Amino acid sequence: MLPPFRSSRPRRLAAVLATVAGLLATTAGAATAAPAPRSCSFVCVPDPVVLDGLHLAGNKIGLMAGNPTLRTSLSNLLKQADDALAKGPWTVVDKERVPPSGDKHDYLSLAPYYWPSQPKTPENPQGCPYVDRDGQVNPEMKNVPDKAERLVAFNSIYQLSLAWYYTGKAEYAQRAALDLRTWFLDAATKMNPNLNFAQGIPCKTDGRGIGIIEFSYTFTQVLDAARILEAGAPGWTKADGKAFRGWSADFLTWLRTSKNGTDEAKATNNHGTFYDLLTAATASYVGQRDLARQIVRDSGKARIDHQIAADGGQPEESTRTRTYHYHTFNLVALTRLAQLGKHLGVDLWSYRNPNGGSIFAAVDHLLPAATGAAPWPLPDIHFIQYAALDSVHAAADAGDWKARAAVGHIPAPPGGDLFPVRPAAEQLDDVSTT
């Protein structure tokens, strides 16, 4: 049974506001990293689903005070946001291949690790049957662009909304709003709220519950982006917000009632953890907080009990060809669930399973390899050291002293360490195209 979590949000908010006058006095005349937004003052505290709005507000104050870590992180974020201004918008109707439903508004993708086992002939043009080659991506999946465009679109929406929050520049918010409306709301371009045809296998199945993983954390970024835009962003209206909540509520119903959704809920590895994250975050966003709270509370026994050993290893992820990747990947879901739980009064960080396994233990298990102090003890066909960085950051923020000591010794990903200004874990080593 998870202990109740007593939020310090009101006390922390008071502390943030109480420091503003003093910080402004000490920074008067000094160079600042980012101006206050025009429609959301520097004390504006958004209400994201996973991110901590108070943390974001504190970051803005830190930027005004010239914090060098925050300034560097924001500079890296703005490079990506500026790039996103010149791309998109993206839509599922752009694809040439028509889903089995006959409706291009349905999302479509192929199972990444499945390959044809026979030569392609006029009698067998697809080379069926397809066979699993774990960890090896079939390049044929690039012929169906929904998955790749979803990743770029959702990341762009997230980065643009944060860029607006920190800088106040209207063009960031307006572009995020356009991308949101194009993918989810506009009649000509919107995606239907289902994943019926995600990760299909030619000659075998049109879609699988496993395909839900393609939305399972990136959609929670979009939910946070929408909440940030609701803090007064230009270009995102109350009608937009209402429409997107309606889309999200329909999607939540599909997740909880469809065969694909109920199949994914039964998964015992990272798929099950990400399903919990997706359903809990979506429930919280649409106002079903009791449901969200129950999902997070149950994830202690349903996920941590089974998934994390006493030493912090993750047996379910230890049989893969990319064991380090899947250890870090599952931790993205667990740490985001813990951050979501904090908003709902559930302390998942403190949960210990009967063997002593916990999120902290799972993070600490990665530290020797993540810092380069020791080699990763399991096989991994494409080890990427920095993959653990965000989860280590998250654990450090939550009070893990080992993670706090280690975080500075983990290399940053190519785009820089964004965690200081978007403080929630992301998958840093995308393996979908390699």
Automatic annotation (TrEMBL):
What organism is listed for this UniProt entry? Amycolatopsis halotolerans
| Name this polypeptide is given | Alginate lyase family protein
In this protein, which residues make up the domain named Alginate lyase? 93-376
Leader peptide range in chain numbering: 1-33
Q: Which UniProt keywords apply?
A: Lyase, Signal
Q: Name one Pfam family in it.
A: Alginate_lyase
Q: Name one GO molecular function term.
A: lyase activity
Work out whether the entry's keyword set contains Signal. Answer: yes
